[in-house]
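DM from R.C. (forwarded with permission)

"hey, sorry to bug you on a friday — could you get me a structure for this? deadline for the figure draft is monday and I only need the backbone to look sensible"
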Amino acid sequence: MPRKTDSRAKALATAEQLFRTQGYAATGLAQIIAESGSPKGSFYFHFPDGKLQIAQEALAAYAGRVALFIQTMPAGTPPDAATLIRRLFGAIAAEMQSAEHRLGCLVQNLANEHVEPDGVLAPPLAKAIALWEAQLSARLVDCGLAPPAARNRARAIILLLEGARTIARIERSGEAFALAARLACADLVEAG
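My reply, with the result:
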């Protein structure tokens, strides 16, 4: 009977962490293997196409987790868009602070390093952003926004979040998230 290990999951988690903190180009396979504790043979068994394959799989997992977080994040009681938006920005700011402002967005980091429009990563990067916008738009509709307004606001929120994350990494501060959250819900009225 084959032996079951968690080396694949550890390699994926390690690759994601390294790609988020130091970027794709600065992360080598040897570093992923060493830091994950994966045996080299096991690593190449799970990821025969190497670094690009593990980046694609880490991206898919990361995009799915972020979408699930958006889907399950509590809004206000009663649900209102302003509370939902502030909580989203606050959660990402808290994650950044707990990581001493070193964690970038995996989508943003990979997009910055792989800008070729016909490249292998372009479709999954676009899919990740579309998934997040769809989840956020649906949540905003649940909070009472009309679908076209919800779609536009969801896109604007993603833009503000990605920019705030960049500024937070540079300034090592969460102030950019607070400002971006205020801008994202400036014309919204809280329920209750």
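R.C.: lifesaver. The mean pLDDT is 92.
me: no worries. The radius of gyration is 18 Å.
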